[in-house]
Fold this protein.
Amino acid sequence: MADDLTVFEVFGRERKGEPHRHAGSLRAADAQMAVVLAQELFCRRKEYVQIWVVPRTAIHWAPDGDAPLGPEPQRVYRIGEGYRGTVEKWKRFGGDGDASRG
Amino acid sequence: MSDGRLEAFEARIARGDLVEADDWMPEEYRRQCFRLIVTHANSELMGALPEREWIPRAPGLKRKLSVLSKVQDEIGHAQMIYRVAEDLARPFGISREQMLDDLIEGKAKFHNVFSYPAPTWADVGVIAWLVDGAALETQGALLRTSYAPYARILRRICAEEAIHLKHGEDIVLTLASGTRAQRAMLQDAIQRWWQPLLHFFGPPDELSPNSERTFRWRIRTRTNEQLRQSFLRKYAPKVLSLGMEIPDPELRLDPETGDWHYGDPDWNEFWRVVKGGGARTEARLELRRMTREQQGWVLAAMADPTSAA
Ligand SMILES: [Fe+2]
Ligand SMILES: [Fe+2]
């Protein structure tokens, strides 16, 4: 009987406009039942304005390891650090070099 | 057998890294985590029972609703923790049904405190204040466990336990500021629960290879004695400040270390209780058995909603 149950991951949106965050997981016969149970388990204190249930088998992931995913750190052209020189460059035009003023 | 995986795992843990359910882990790590987590799940489930007995008898609607909601929380905690235990136990071929079977057959452990009777309303207050307070010490320390799925679910659980503690504190403070009879009832409950509370944290950890690994792998981060002392520091002064007596003539604060010295809490009694010999162990397990049988049809209907006639 319990072998027929599906594991669902539960995600909740805490406030309007915020992304859903993982809340936990549960077992249920189908998505409809999972929504009911998710409210029982995770919404007793008005924690969320919305919840999603997702069958765990629907989640796929990239192979992970110790380091964050993404390009090697020397590929700085993808992050703000790669453009630090702008402060100096602005000075040529009389800028005060405040990097935040891009 | 060394293929470097164990060494890499240990290096990860040493760096403060956390372990996720799908990561490779040594079988011994998995086994230790599972044992700790399933015992916690069993304790949440069994822990709801002494208070459940008080739902029909709670003094007044407000208190009844508080006890009802606490019992609901504890069952919810059990559900969430069994879910974490299930993922860990899958490679061992152990299902949640197996865990529940083991529990009602008396093959699994749960916390000693849930084997004692709760004869008065003051017991309900003392349980919610001090037993939940003790649980919060243990669970608060486990927020830093290396097994991340457990740590994550504990954040939610600890927040709810903190509310249980408030509810218990409120009952205790009401009784403590009540009539002579109410204060006497509170004193009696403290008398009954003090020793089980010292037992709650378990005997001082022995220096075995097993426990050495538990701490090295950061499955647990604080020893039983550290947790007990942390509990005593917080709660012994509070109990005394209510003008209540603590039933331990040897209890005293060491002003140098800040530790509390306590008398021999009779570890034989602890072992007797955790091995199933507690005053209410059998009766409460019987209640679990009965509930499981009588409510089996609800589970069956939920597992196959289309078949429900
Ligand atoms: Fe709990
Ligand atoms: Fe609790």
Chain B has a mean pLDDT of 94. The radius of gyration of chain B is 20 Å.
